[in-house]
């Protein structure tokens, strides 16, 4: 589709749908991609149908990062259909899922923290070591590709939420959401990142 071959794109996606028939995760991803295709083709109701199918599959699965992406796609399609209250709800859902995923995947293991506290008590004056450990943890979090991908989704979700809040005349909330998107982008993606630059 990006290379200007929509016929090839839909053929590949239809083939992927058949191949993913017995793989629910793959099928949800294919439905998401089909929805993106139909959204670009301005067939918004068809796009919405595929996103509803993707969400129906993902609701039965444990919390996954891809569910946030589906909610963001739902937000975009519903916004184009002028259903801004529903679009806003999907932006909120995306934010909740991404934040939960980030906390589960990137907070330190409680057992590891207890061990560190025991070692700290055994070696008095090791506050510098603890600070160094926290610094290493933060560096490993921010340098991981998965972390940055999720922050990008979180940033877009806050931006989309702000857009829908504006449509709903919730101007103070919109300003706060725009600011939150900008702060996440600048702090974790860097001011030179494409997303950060697009938010200026």
Task: List descriptors.
200 residues; 10 helices; mainly alpha
Explain what you see.
The protein is mainly α and 200 residues long. The chain is built from ten helices and no strands. It has helices at residues 6-19, 24-40, 44-59, 65-80, 84-106, 110-122, 127-143, 145-167, 171-189, 194-198. The longest helix has 23 residues, at 84-106.
Secondary structure blueprint with pairings:
Layout: H1 6-19, H2 24-40, H3 44-59, H4 65-80, H5 84-106, H6 110-122, H7 127-143, H8 145-167, H9 171-189, H10 194-198
Helix pairs in contact: 1-2, 2-3, 2-4, 3-4, 4-5, 4-8, 5-8, 8-9
Structure described in brief:
The chain has 200 residues and is an all-alpha fold.
Task: Name the overall outline.
Answer: globular
Rg, rounded, reads 20 Å
Q: Tell me, rounded to a whole number, the average pLDDT.
A: 84
Our count of helices gives 10
Biggest β-sheet strands, sense, barrel: none
Strand percentage: under 5%
Amino- and carboxy-terminal Cα gap: 28 Å
SSE run: HHHHHHHHHH
The computed structural class is mainly alpha
Number of strands: 0
**Helix percent band:** over 70%
Unreliable stretches, pLDDT < 50, 5 or more residues?
Answer: none
């Amino acid at each position: 589709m990006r290379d200007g071959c929509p016929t090839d794109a839909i053929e590949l996606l239809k083939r992927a749908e058949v191949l993913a028939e017995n793989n629910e995760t793959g099928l949800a991803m294919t439905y998401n991609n089909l929805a993106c295709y139909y959204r670009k083709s301005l067939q918004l109701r068809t796009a919405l149908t595929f996103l509803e199918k993707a969400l129906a599959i993902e609701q039965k699965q444990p919390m996954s990062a891809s569910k946030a992406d589906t909610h963001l796609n739902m937000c975009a399609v519903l916004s184009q259909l002028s259903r801004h209250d529903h679009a806003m709800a999907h932006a909120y859902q995306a934010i909740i899922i991404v934040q939960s995923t980030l906390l589960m995947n990137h907070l330190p293991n409680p057992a590891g923290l207890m061990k560190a506290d025991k070692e700290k008590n055994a070696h008095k004056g090791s506050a510098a070591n603890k600070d160094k450990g926290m610094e290493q943890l933060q560096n490993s979090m921010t340098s991981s590709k998965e972390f940055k991908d999720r922050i990008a989704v979180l940033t877009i979700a806050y931006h989309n939420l702000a857009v829908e809040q504006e449509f709903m005349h919730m101007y103070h909330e919109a300003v706060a959401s725009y600011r939150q998107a900008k702060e996440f982008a600048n702090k974790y993606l860097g001011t030179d990142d494409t997303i950060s630059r697009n938010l200026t």
